[in-house]
Amino acid sequence: MDSRIDNVYVTPIYVATITEQEGFNLIQQEAKKAIEASKFSSREEWGPTHYLSSTTFINDVIKEQNMQLFSAVMHSHLKEYMSIVGFSLRPYMVTSWFSLFQQNQYGQIHTHGNADVSGCYYVETSGDDGDLFFEDPRPANESSYVFSGRYMSGRRAYTPKVGQMLMFPGYLPHGIKTNSKTTDRVSLSFNIKFIDPRCELKQDNV
């Protein structure tokens, strides 16, 4: 018998812990200073689920608050992530914001629109104040008696850790479990949108 299994349609999620060699303590100082300078509010149509430093998702708090070290480290890890998935790094645009989860707050399941890569960095967390979780982007898979629960289907949760950075495809449905603790959970979220050279070529030909 000549046969094999090809695990196709995999979803690569990048997980890294920022080290002191990369400037962890300085990045934390940058982030906490930026948090203090930010004004948080909830998105009206979502209700008081959690607070954001920007409810429009079109700003870049990393640039606005001059978080140069974090920007450089994020770029380094983005380069590594793209190398792993076989994508040649090219110019990109960034939007970013802080997300604050206080007691009994949570993040509903959502995607990040047309972002190529989305990510988060944990600035403040006790580790048990709300896991990040991902939903299977193939909903039809859940109806299969054979394949449901296999091949990384269903929900997958990641426990937050100070200094940890995650990156994942922007299309991947995700949410944040309820913070049942009295401590605040603060993360820096970001979206990466690569500039499509085909668009540049089209503009040149206009």
Q: How would you characterize this protein structure?
A:
The protein is an alpha+beta fold and 206 residues long. The protein has a single domain (14-205), classed as Sandwich (Jelly Rolls), CATH 2.60.120.620. 22% of the residues lie in helices and 26% in strands. The chain contains 4 helices and 10 strands; from the N terminus they run βαβααββββββββα. A 6-stranded antiparallel β-sheet has the order 1-8-5-10-3-2. It is globular. The chain starts with 13 loop residues before the first strand and ends with a helix. The model has no long low-confidence stretch (mean pLDDT 92).
The beta-strand count equals: 10
So what's the CATH class? Mainly Beta
- Estimate percent helicity: 10-25%
First-residue to last-residue Cα separation: 57 Å
Question: Proportion of β residues?
Answer: 25-35%
Radius of gyration: 18 Å
Unreliable runs, pLDDT <50, ≥5 residues?
none
Largest sheet: 6 strands, antiparallel
Biggest sheet strand order reads 1-8-5-10-3-2
From the 3D structure, determine the CATH topology. Answer: Jelly Rolls
Which word captures the global form? globular
DSSP helical segment count: 4
- The computed structural class is alpha+beta
Mean of all residue-level pLDDT scores: 92
Question: Which oligomeric state applies?
Answer: single chain
Instruction: Kindly report the name of the CATH homologous superfamily.
Output: q2cbj1_9rhob like domain
Number of domains: 1
How do the helices and strands follow one another from N- to C-terminus? EHEHHEEEEEEEEH
Q: From the 3D coordinates, which CATH architecture would you assign? A: Sandwich
